[in-house]
Specification:
The chain is an alpha/beta fold and 405 residues long. It contains 12 helices and 14 strands. The chain has 2 domains: 6-69 and 92-177, HUPs (Rossmann fold); 182-358, Argininosuccinate synthetase, chain A, domain 2 (Alpha-Beta Complex), CATH 3.90.1260.10.
């Protein structure tokens, strides 16, 4: 500990990291640098400055990273249609590599000896933060208080706050608040009643979305314009990546879109129940697949779908900065060269319904696909030989007595 004189802490200003800031001062006798990122969590980040100042911290970084987050992390991920275990849109996972990047950059700028984070020893985030940090600065020292201290419950953390006069938001008597994470892509909820997989989540837990029952009785239509696989405009109005997500979170939330209650398999081996609100991401995934459906070659689309689970798993488990993720990203980005056009969606009571798609790069040919006379564009008689050739290996096997009923 005596070798560590300065530590950069990923600091949200919430319960865990507020305790950690004070704990690091006491246990390591080190100077603390706090880094608070505005990733679009929808809450003021400036209060974190006052909390840090109250603990005597002099170097305080508070940065608006919303555009970088959306442009360089979320949008590239959605080009891949990434989804983990068939449901989770990776809202927490994709934020961690950016935070790790800035932690290392700030450590280099301030001459810090170590970085620290508030991830527990039971979760995925410790892996994500630290894999990112080691990939970007191999010799960096990482301090993970949850793997060192004995404050292993929310109640003990709150007692520590009371002892050291640390302000805690959302305190409800002796009851612990949910463990939450928020950014432009989602809000996650863990802990509390959610630890019983049979107990229904509480309605007042949700922050961004109306319940489908309370959503408007008339649908909302939106048109998303794509260029090279990315949304560049909504209803004809040009927007930056962050503006796109802010807009879709609002309109999606109003229409009850994006709620999820799942049990997922963590990288460390346990199962965990979490609830998520991802209105923009839910809309973006459906719309991107719709524009790809008319602009991607069949085999390219199928290959992307085969590789997607691996890509999603790399993000979930913290390997954003790995060579294999970068290799996959190069291939995915190349596939998006002709993913241009417009998708029209109907948003209604929790549903995202594709009602139209068009593109100058569309591979859909109505003259060939039609059920009416096609003027000779497609010779149906050709299908017979095609089928026989594809059946050849099975016919040979059947002739040898295989495949027989």
């Amino acid at each position: 500990m005596s070798e560590i004189k300065k530590i950069v802490l990923a600091y949200s200003g919430g319960l865990d990291t507020s305790v950690i800031a004070k704990w690091l001062q006491e246990e390591y006798k080190a100077e603390i640098v706090t880094f608070t990122a505005d990733l679009g969590q929808g809450e003021e980040v400036e209060p974190a400055r006052k909390k840090a100042e109250a603990m005597g911290i002099k170097e305080i970084y508070i940065e608006d990273l919303r555009e970088e987050f959306a442009r360089d992390f979320v949008f590239p991920m959605f080009r891949a249609n990434a989804i983990y275990e068939g449901e989770y849109l990776l809202g927490t996972s994709i934020a961690r590599p950016l935070i790790a990047k800035r932690l290392i950059e700030i450590a280099n700028e301030t001459g810090a000896d170590a970085i620290s984070h508030g991830a527990t020893g039971k979760g995925n985030d410790q892996v994500r933060f630290e894999l990112g940090a080691y990939a970007l600065k191999p010799g960096v020292k990482v301090i993970a208080p949850w793997r060192e201290w004995d404050l292993l419950s929310r109640e003990k953390l709150m007692a520590y706050c009371e002892k050291h006069n640390i302000q805690v938001d959302m305190k409800k008597g002796k009851k612990s608040p949910y463990s939450m994470d928020a950014n432009l892509l989602h809000i996650s909820y863990e802990g509390g009643v959610l630890e019983d997989t049979w107990t229904e989540h509480e309605e007042d837990m949700w922050r961004w979305t109306k319940s489908p029952e309370a959503a408007p009785d008339v649908p909302t239509y939106v048109e998303l314009s794509y260029r090279n696989g990315d949304i560049v405009a909504i209803d004809g109005v040009a927007m930056t990546p962050a503006q796109v997500m802010i807009h879709l979170n609002r309109v999606g939330g109003e229409n009850g879109i994006g709620r999820l209650d799942i049990v997922e398999n963590r990288y460390v081996g346990m199962k965990s129940r979490g609830c998520y609100e991802t209105p923009a991401g839910t809309i973006m995934l459906r719309a991107h697949r719709a524009i790809e459906s008319i602009t991607l070659d069949r085999e390219v689309a199928h290959l992307k779908d085969e590789l997607m689970p691996r890509y999603a798993s790399l993000i979930y488990t913290g390997y954003w900065w790995s060579p294999e993720r970068k290799m996959l990203q190069t291939m995915i980005d190349a596939s998006q060269a002709h993913v241009n056009g417009v998708v029209r969606l109907k948003l209604y009571k929790g549903n995202v319904i594709v009602v139209g798609r068009k593109s100058d790069d569309s591979l859909f040919d109505a003259n060939i696909a039609t059920f009416e006379e096609d003027g000779g564009a497609y010779n149906q008689a050709d299908a017979g030989g095609f089928i026989k050739l594809n059946a050849l290996r099975m016919r040979i096997a059947a002739g040898k007595g295989r495949n027989l009923l």
